[in-house]
Every structure is written in C-alpha cells, then in structure tokens.
Specification:
By secondary structure, the chain is mainly α. It has 14 helices and no strands. Helix 3 packs across helix 9. The longest helix is centred in the N-terminal third of the chain and has 34 residues. 42% of the residues are buried.
Length: 363
C-alpha cells in the first residue's frame, strides 16, 4: 500500500482508516461488554462487582461503542457510492429484519425450545423474539434517511431534524401503554420500558445525523491536519468536562432515569465528544503507524455486522445452555477471557464468510 492511500489531503474520497479503527475499538468493547453483561449475571452479587461495572458501563456505554457505530454509519452514508434513497431504504429493511433473525438465533429458539419441552413458556419469550436491538435501530435509521433524501433534504437539514427529535425524546415522559404490543410499537420511537425499547429513534438518530455532517465536512476539507487538531482539542475538552460531571452526578445524569438508551441531546454531545476524541487521535496515530500494520483492526471494521451477529449467536448459546441449563457460572477473569476469545473467533468466522461470498461472486 503506497503512502498516497493515506494522504487524505490529496484524496478526498480515500478510505478513512481512522474511522475503521474507531469501529474496531467499538466492536471489541461491545463484545467484552456483552460477555460481562450476559455471563456475569449468573454470579450472585454481580451488581456490586467492579469488573461488572467496568464491562457493563465503561466498556459498554462510555467507550466508543453503539454511539460510535451509529456515528460511523452516518459518515459511511456520505462516503458510500450506493447511498441512493432506494439503496438506503433496502439496506435498512434488510438490517431491520436481520435484527429479528438474530433475536431468534441468540435467545428466541432456546426460549421456544424450553417452552415446547416443559409446556411452560417463560414470561420474557416475547422480549426474546421481538426485543429491540442496535440492528433494528440502524435499519430504521437507514430507512428514514432514505425517505428524507428522497425529499431532497441535505445533511444539515437531517441534523436539524435529528436535533428536534432528540429534544422531544429528551423531555417527553416515559410512555407505558399497559401492554407489550403497544410498548413495542411506540418503543421504536420513544422510551417505553426495558423489555420493549432499546436505542429509541428520537434519541439516537442524532448520532447518525452527526456522522453525516462530519462526513460532509471531512470530504470537503483540504487541510485535514488542521481540522483534526482543532477537533482533538475541542472534543477532548468537552469529554473531560463530561466525564468529570459524570463522576460527580452519576452515569447518564443528563438522561431521564439515567438511561443510556434514552440519551438526551446534552448526553449525546458528551458521548460524541468521546467518539471524536478517539477518531482524531487515530488520525494522528496513522501518521506514525502505517495502516497495513493495523490491518487486523481494519478487517474487523469491514466485517463489523457479521462479527456482531456471530458473537451474539455464540454468546446466546453459552448463556442459555452452559449457564442457564447446566447452571455453570464463570469467574470474572474467565468471563473476560471468553470475551477475548469471542472477539477473535467471531472475527475469523466473519472473515472466512466474507471470503466465501467474494469467491462465490467471482465464479
């Protein structure tokens, strides 16, 4: 790979390797978080364990995780040559349906199998099949973006709409219709309860819109060094204030019920400051370390949806069969080790899957 591939000042449409590294950090942190949150709950008193807090809150919420994914997706919409309204909506529908396939494979089929065998269905079976996930939100975000682009709205308009939605989502009270179906339907847009909503659209579309605005800005910037220097200083200052206040007032103190999935507009700004700080740092890191030496992480970012899907399927098996059925509980070091193994194994399977698809297309 020649140095021209990394010269972002001369090639405005070159791949943003710093964004690849951001996505790689996000998937690594997210897998570790999921291992801790799903396997750690089988240990009595897990709520008071620091290693649970580290995985659940620090790695799973504050580090570059879901909010970084959605920011990166927004940037990708601007950079992709396939971001026509039709393509965006089709991709959105596929992602949304993929979320329900994942629901079935990671928990739904185990809940269903247990119900058939015992004759008693657990109360959380609807959540196992219909519970919201980042894939559902991502799909919905792509569909809405496609519709808005069909109306000839530009990125700045989408950011304004996302800002208004975020404000509405921030101030509107938690809605409870009294039944699962109503809460599930409304939970796509605003906060209902933990069983029926996750990554609600009104609160989370701001991350996608911010990514699109950033993609538009970076694509038209001649001097990226200067842009990233300024961005690094500003975002680090905001991040420092945000983290300091978080220590003072508690996690997600700017959101109702301290709920990550109902992130308010100020909370979103704080989380974005973390993403932008890492993104800027990675830009300057790539000036010191050639991208080919970080190819493992870049490959992970290219297969990020597959890695996400695969790791949940494996983790669902461990949670339902090993921990729930055979009543095995893992000590915390082993849980983190399982998380590392999940990262490696899911990445390898995803890479093999991607190679197989490329080979099939070439035939």
């Amino acid at each position: 790979m020649s140095s021209n591939h990394l010269n972002t000042e001369t090639r405005k449409d070159s791949r943003l390797f710093e964004l690849d590294l951001l996505k790689a950090v996000a998937i690594i942190a997210m897998i570790l978080c999921h291992a801790v949150s799903r396997l750690g709950i089988h240990n009595p008193g897990y709520e008071n364990e620091f290693l649970f807090f580290l995985g659940e809150e620090i790695l799973g919420d504050y580090l570059c995780v879901a909010h970084a994914f959605m920011f990166a997706m927004g940037v990708g919409i601007v950079y992709s040559r396939k971001s026509t309204p039709k393509n965006l909506m089709l991709r959105g529908v596929k992602l949304y349906l993929l979320g329900y396939l994942l629901n079935f494979l990671r928990y739904g089929m185990y809940n269903l199998g247990e119900g058939i065998i015992t004759g008693e269905f657990r109360s959380d079976i609807l959540k196992a099949f219909l519970g919201m996930d980042i894939l559902h939100f991502a799909g919905l975000a792509l569909i809405v973006t496609g519709v808005l682009k069909l109306l000839k709205l530009r990125e700045v308009h989408l950011l304004a709409i996302a800002g208004v939605l975020s404000l509405i989502g921030s101030v509107i009270p938690v809605i409870d219709t009294g039944n699962f179906a109503g809460n599930w339907f409304i939970g796509h847009l605003v906060t209902t309860n933990s069983e029926t909503c996750c990554f609600v659209f009104f609160n989370w579309y701001i991350f996608v819109a911010a990514g699109m605005i950033f993609g538009k800005i970076i694509r038209g910037t001649e001097n990226r060094d200067r842009l990233y220097k300024r961005l690094l200083i500003i975002s680090c200052c905001v991040m420092a204030v945000y983290i300091t206040l978080t220590f003072c007032f508690g996690t997600f103190f700017l959101s109702k019920n301290h709920d990550y999935y109902s992130a308010s507009l100020p909370e979103a700004a704080g989380l974005l400051s973390i993403d932008l700080s890492f993104l800027s740092a990675f830009y300057f890191l790539l000036k010191l370390v050639p991208a080919e030496k970080l190819s493992v992480f870049i490959d992970m970012s290219r297969n990020i949806t597959s890695i996400y899907f695969i790791h949940w399927c494996i983790l669902g098996f461990l949670d339902c069969i090993v921990c729930y059925l055979f009543e095995v509980s893992f000590p915390w070091p082993v849980i983190y080790l399982i998380g590392v193994v999940l990262i490696v194994l899911s990445s390898l399977i995803a890479k093999l899957w991607a190679s197989r698809k490329r080979f099939a297309k070439a035939k």
